[in-house]
Amino acid sequence: MTSPLFRTKKVEQSIRDTEEPEHALKKSLSALDLTVFGVGVIIGTGIFVLTGTVAKDNAGPATALAFVVAGVVCALAALCYAEFASTVPVAGSAYTFSYASLGELPAWIIGWDLVLEFALGTAVVAVGWSGYIQSLMENAGWEMPAALGSREGSDVFGFDILAAVLVLVLTGILVLGMKLSARVTSVVVAIKVTVVLVVIIAGAFFITADNYDPFIPESQPVPAGESLDSPLIQLMFGWAPANFGVMGIFTAASVVFFAFIGFDIVATAAEETRNPQRDMPRGILGSLFICTVLYVLVSLVVTGMQHYSELSVDAPLADAFKATGHPWFAGFISFGAAVGLTTVCMILLLGQTRVFFAMSRDGLLPTFFSRVHPRFRTPHRPTILLGVVIAVLAGFTPLNELAALVNIGTLFAFVIVAISVIILRRTRPDLHRAFRTPWVPVLPIVSVGASLWLMLNLPAETWVRFGIWMAIGIVVYFLYSRTHSRMAREKDTSPASPAS
């Protein structure tokens, strides 16, 4: 007899649930749509901002290697996601995967984690988008009133109306259907990728070879008290991340990892994909590969245009072109960043609503939210609820210090998915797997280790906040979800059936 806390939901049952008319989502996405979604959410603030920060403080021109390291960590996780998403083509991503392998309580924990991760990610990106728009407006000679603009650096209490409106508009698009969302995303991604390619191609003509010397600057200790200092690492190992040198590359990788967040969201759309067994691996791995190549090229160009010690922290790409005497590109890059962030915001919101929908369909959250719209076949109720909540969150709450929670939440999901692959291979070797993660269990174990390594490079305050959120989730589970779970209700109505 297994504990009810670790009762698993059979893969076959998860798939049957998707076929119930009142819970069935419309299947309309192709491999190209999934790849576009992945590129759309991955390329965002990270590449436009973090490049200058890590080059100046951690890795110098070797920032390109930091992007490679972060990309490898994501690729390890992506291979695990690809197997699960093609084997269990059900909305919910890591939540659904862990329910099929680890059990109900672990599934709840990861679902609760993903709800926080996507909510904060959406709000943070919306506020960043608002900042870019306000910057473009100021360049045109019109300034937003302090009470209706971003609050960063301002003593005036206000509501970021642009961030809130963006979230609400994207909520409406998601309610109207996935195909419309895919079309909007395709247009915006085309603009965003064009901007990145312009940076790479135009910037290549302004590269000075001397700026690459040294490619890996000499190692320097991080001064005590700096934000890059990780108290958790000091507590456990007695050392802190170093500036520059080989270890500086790994520290930079833990920072630029934020630029890769989002490829896992492709897995949340598995249930709305026409041929998930074939298209999910292509969408996940394809989008990750494209973005890694673009990130490496951009970092090489920007550190070649301007010496790493002189790079801007706020807008390194735009300011590098200014430094070479081409200020026109600065406005072009800001425009591309603002346009591009709309897709990041929309796909993060998409991921959260699908996880919330899957948890509701399983009874862990109120089943009121598991009904799909009769015409659009989208989970309109959780989409509207979460859209309004996040709009208010983005409008009122300064979230910069909480942004690191997005990183730790994503890495935690990576760990769970990699472990789940190993377990499901042992417990359900009979399942048809259209895509198989190679070198199991070695590769998933390496993925777990790599994700934990990056987690340890995050500040201790992030771990404390993450622990508090998880503790709240445990309380909610035992007060509501454990008894309202669909698995629990089915057990209660079946005669003397043991927990599965």
Features:
18 helices; 500 residues
Can you put this structure into words, describing what you see?
It is a single chain. The protein is mainly α and 500 residues long. The protein is built from 18 helices and no strands. It has helices at residues 11-17, 31-42, 45-59, 63-87, 94-101, 104-139, 161-176, 178-204, 231-237, 245-256, 276-305, 316-323, 328-361, 380-396, 404-427, 442-456, 460-484, 486-493. It starts with 10 loop residues before the first helix and ends in a 7-residue tail after the last helix.
Number of strands: 0
Number of helical runs?
18
Largest sheet: none
Fraction in helix: 55-70%
Distance between the ends: 8 Å
Helix/sheet category: mainly alpha
Give the averaged pLDDT, no decimals: 82
Rounded to an integer in angstroms, the radius of gyration calculated over CA atoms is 22 Å
Q: Which geometry do the CA atoms define?
A: globular
Order of helices and strands: HHHHHHHHHHHHHHHHHH
Uncertain runs are 224-241, 495-500
The fraction of residues in strands falls at: under 5%
Topology:
Blueprint: H1 11-17, H2 31-42, H3 45-59, H4 63-87, H5 94-101, H6 104-139, H7 161-176, H8 178-204, H9 231-237, H10 245-256, H11 276-305, H12 316-323, H13 328-361, H14 380-396, H15 404-427, H16 442-456, H17 460-484, H18 486-493
Helix pairs in contact: 2-8, 2-11, 2-13, 3-10, 3-11, 4-10, 4-11, 4-15, 4-16, 5-6, 5-15, 6-7, 6-13, 6-14, 6-15, 6-17, 7-13, 7-14, 8-11, 8-13, 12-13, 13-14, 15-16, 15-17
Brief overview, please?
This protein has 500 residues and is an all-alpha fold. The protein contains 18 helices and no strands. It is 65% helix and 0% strand.
